[in-house]
Write a structure and sequence with these properties.
By secondary structure, the chain is mainly beta. 11% of the residues lie in helices and 38% in strands. The chain has a ten-stranded antiparallel beta sheet. Strands 1-2 form a two-stranded antiparallel sheet. The chain starts with 10 loop residues before the first strand and ends in a 12-residue tail after the last strand. The relative contact order is 0.18.
Amino acid sequence: MAQTERSEPYFTERDGALLPAPHARSWWTAGMLHGRLLAGLLARSLEQQHSGEGLHFARLTVDMFRNAPMEPLRVTTERVRDGRRIRVADAVVHASVGPVARAAAVLLRRGEQPTGFVPNIPEWDALPPDQLPDTTKPDFPIQMFDAHNTPIGYWGDSGTLARRIWVHEFSPLVAGESLTPFVRAALAADAASPMTHAGKKLEFINADYTLLLSRLPMSDVVGLESGGHISEDGIAVGHATVYDIAGPIGHCTTTALANQRSVSGPKTAS
């Protein structure tokens, strides 16, 4: 992707509080924080406070149950279980209105890989980001394309073909800190909802997602491919496969709630 890295972080930490920058706002409402950044903050705190040698973040479930205002936030965590092979921890984002999002993480201890054959998903034939025509607006971290590796302008432009994206965050989440692979994956996973649930326009808003990782991404870009959408009575569920440059690394499942209004969002140039 052709963009240069943005220098402004989304948050600055001061006295334990995380102060959002103007570009941290949601695509839906000007006075609301973007949901993917809440997921990033939750992943960041869980990683900082509950990671351990030999342990891998295999699951991250993020619940976004309340709009987060553009104001200082605090994150608290709790270790729920600490066993020999499994660790479970929770995190909550707090604002002046109370809790606005929470996450539950499962860390599994790495071990010897079994030698038996298990059928796997096919290798991804997506082109690397630098080999795709650059149709992305400046500072927009998502590059969209279809199953023929043809760039598409917006979520609904791919017709019946699977939607594919590369996500490359250009801004640090918190000032003075580099994005870790786990936080990058958590930020990218939020895009599974619009890429799975959008029609001609985006009429479902993300309620939660679960990111499942067999390993962490080894590249700065994280890829997703839509795998399916089912909805009834304004409730949608869907899933996507998660990739890095080397291949598949996991899955993301998502639930969404109908939010039928005209949403332009940040479209890519056609």
